[in-house]
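Annex B. Sample input.
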Amino acid sequence: MSGGGRPGGREVIFEFTTIGESTRVAAIDVATGEEVVISGPAGASRGDLERVALRKLLRRLVSLPQGAQKKTPRRGGRGVIV
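Annex B, continued. Sample output.
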C-alpha cells in the first residue's frame, strides 16, 4: 500500500498471511527496508491489524540510529548490506 495518508508520507508495504485462526502481518518501510511482524486473530479486521503493524514499524524507525536509516541493496537484488 502506498503511504499517502501515512505519517511522514512514508510508503509501507503490508503482507497478510492467514494460517488457521491467526493472521501474520508484515509491514515493510520501502525507504529503509525495515520490517516488523505482528500476529492477531484471523477474525480481526485488516484495518485494525494494519494499524497495529504500522505503529510498531514507526516505533522501530524512530529507535533506529541515524546512520541506519538507509540500507544499501546488494548487487543482484538479493538481501541488503547492513
